[in-house]
Amino acid sequence: AINEILEVLSVLIEEKHQNIELDIPMDIKDIFADRHALEQVLMNIISNAIKYSDDSSTIKISATSNYFNVKIVVEDHGIGIPEEDIDRIFERFYRVEKSRSRAQGGTGLGLSIARELILSMNGDIKLESKLNEGTKVTLTFETA
Ligand code: ATP
Ligand code: MG
């Protein structure tokens, strides 16, 4: 179940000294998805939230569900993404270099792989971001 997956991931995050806030109802519906693929997707999204924000800032992960859908939201208060780059963020190898102060490693593949996996599971991904304010990624899946 999604609770288990997110709890395991949040322990990993806490080991990196980042504050993580989990908000998942006990009765969250199961997701129609391959567990391994779902873990990979969440790991990608959450590791971006970690990588592109300060260790002292809080990352919020919340999930809600209704009869049809499960929605997972990962929100950070990090460096954000310039508006002109947002449309290209899911392209392979695309990385925002402008106004990135810290040298952050990465291939620029994380989001494109995540998106492909999500689409293959009949899900959807949406990213909203404001430069210097933070980023919000919303994942939507069908219930099992
Ligand atoms: P990889 O995931 O392959 O290690 P990456 O993190 O650079 O490398 P993506 O995950 O595809 O690649 O993200 C693409 C780009 O989008 C990043 O280089 C970064 O500039 C920007 N980005 C993604 N997530 C965030 C976020 N939460 N906050 C700020 N910028 C982000
Ligand atoms: Mg990444």
From TrEMBL:
GO terms for cellular component: plasma membrane. Its main location: membrane. One of its GO terms (biological process) is cellular response to phosphate starvation. This is histidine kinase. It comes from Anaerosphaera aminiphila DSM 21120. It comes from the Bacteria. Keywords: Kinase, Membrane, Phosphoprotein, Transferase, Transmembrane, Transmembrane helix, Two-component regulatory system. Residues 1-144 form the Histidine kinase domain.
